[in-house]
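Need a sequence for this fold. Nothing fancy.
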């Protein structure tokens, strides 16, 4: 913890020098107790330091494991509510979302209101069921120009692909998640999973 401090080196060395000149059996009761508590304090300090170092490593591993598990469960596509805003006005609508390597893709018409919002404010939010995702959204071109997106979109949303993807006004956007929150139940108890993606914290 933040309150744990190592013993001053001079005090440790002082006890060591005393032990060299005085056998433990000849130390007075008070000095024996001080020596005993000093050793316990040193031992506790190093144990806490060891646990703290390994806890940080374990939390990092936990983030990567849970993050990977989340995307595996999320799957390749979802119909999600996308919320966009501009000048304190928020609008929402259901979008067909494709997941490619943990980056979310969608297409939209450049004459729509949300397009103007996205071009002026890249902060967006997506939600479905027990999942909320915050992220940064950017236009990357026309959907028909992105082969990976087209293949996935055609497979997952064939009707939308055939109707809209090749239209001249369609534009392709990516959402790079920055924060994810999900309600889960473990042994019938509710928990909130939180992924701070920028800082790799879970």
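Here you go.
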């Amino acid at each position: 913890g933040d309150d744990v401090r190592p013993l001053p080196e001079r005090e440790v060395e002082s006890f060591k020098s005393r032990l060299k000149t005085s056998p433990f059996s000849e130390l007075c009761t008070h000095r024996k107790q001080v020596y005993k508590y000093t050793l316990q304090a040193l031992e506790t300090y190093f144990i806490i330091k060891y646990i703290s170092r390994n806890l940080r490593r374990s939390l990092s591993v936990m983030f990567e494991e849970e993050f990977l598990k989340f995307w595996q469960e999320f799957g390749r596509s979802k119909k999600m509510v996308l919320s966009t805003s501009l000048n304190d006005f928020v609008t929402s609508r259901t979008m067909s979302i494709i997941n490619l390597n943990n980056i979310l893709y969608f297409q939209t018409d450049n004459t729509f209101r949300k397009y103007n919002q996205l071009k002026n404010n890249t902060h967006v939010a997506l939600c479905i069921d027990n999942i909320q995702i915050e992220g940064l959204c950017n236009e990357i071109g026309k959907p028909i120009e992105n082969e990976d997106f087209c293949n996935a979109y055609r497979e997952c949303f064939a009707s939308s692909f055939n109707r809209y993807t090749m239209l001249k006004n369609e534009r392709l956007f990516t959402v790079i998640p920055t924060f994810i929150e999900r309600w889960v139940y473990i042994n019938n108890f509710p928990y909130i999973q939180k992924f701070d993606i920028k800082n790799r914290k879970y």
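For context: The chain has a mean pLDDT of 85.
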